[in-house]
Write a structure and sequence with these properties.
- It is a single chain.
- This protein is mainly alpha-helical.
- It is elongated.
- A two-stranded antiparallel ribbon has the order 1-2.
- It is built from eleven helices and two strands.
- The chain has three domains: 79 residues, no CATH class; 74 residues, no CATH class; 78 residues, no CATH class.
- α5 packs across α10 and α9 packs across α11.
- 65% of the residues lie in helices and 4% in strands.
């Protein structure tokens, strides 16, 4: 099947001409035309969307172009379009949840998580969410893959998890606020990470990964016990 076979040509043509003529005939540069065509191909091709985007290689195959060039253009479109943080968090959550579904059993025995994020904007957005409070994210092996220790994965999961799961963690932490130096509610989770999870060994790292996976996969009933396990292991670690 060629890209034309899956394309809604009428909608593509209408949107192309509308955008191309909006600034006046011949005013759009070749680069902007290429970006426009790529965006409209994704928006108007059956089975493709920015909600569930094709890989850069898949598009490159269809367009007979270099993958690197296509990837660069997709990243540019992403930086232009994903200006709303709520939408970026939602799409990032989908990527992480897909990773959890693919590797659920393996993640429950791991103290690190590898997440492949092809979209350049979402990858940098995810790294920034973790880096601003919890330190450097490793992407040295492959620039599209971020490697997160248990504490950093849990911190990222906390940013994107459903409100119910986040509230469940915060409610359990409130019951143990004395162990977290009695800080205000809005600081409890960060104190939890820094005091009980960060740098406390692989066993706590595994529990942190389990807590993040559980919160994202709907295991609400197990959240309080995992929080308590981490706090207990954190105490044991600090006392040893």
């Amino acid at each position: 099947m060629t890209i034309l076979d899956q394309l809604d040509r009428d909608s593509f043509a209408t949107d192309f001409l509308t955008a191309y003529l909006s600034g006046g005939f011949t005013t759009m540069t070749k680069r902007e035309i290429d970006l426009l065509v790529l965006r409209l191909l994704i928006e108007h091709s059956d089975g493709w969307s920015f909600e569930n985007p094709p890989t850069a290689f898949e598009i490159a195959q269809k367009l007979r172009a270099k993958r690197g060039k296509v990837r660069s253009m997709l990243d540019e479109l992403s930086y232009r379009q994903l200006t709303d943080e709520t939408e970026a968090l939602r799409r990032l959550r989908i990527i992480i949840e897909n990773r959890i579904r693919e590797e659920n059993d393996d993640l429950f025995v791991s103290d690190k998580v590898r997440i492949q994020i092809e979209d350049g904007y979402l990858r940098e957005f995810a790294k920034d969410l973790v880096q601003k409070d919890y330190g450097i994210v490793d992407s040295s092996f492959n620039s599209s893959i971020i490697v997160l220790s248990g504490d950093k994965f849990l911190a990222l999961a906390f940013e994107v998890m459903p409100e119910g799961a986040r509230a469940k963690i915060e409610d359990e932490l409130l019951r143990h606020r004395d162990e977290l130096a009695g800080v205000e509610r809005q600081n409890l989770f960060r104190m939890f990470i820094e005091q009980a999870v960060k740098g406390a060994g692989s066993e706590i790292g595994k529990k942190a990964v389990q807590l993040g996976v559980t919160a994202l996969s709907g295991g609400m009933a197990n959240i309080p016990s995992l929080v308590r396990d981490i706090l207990r292991l954190g105490r044991d670690h600090s006392d040893s």
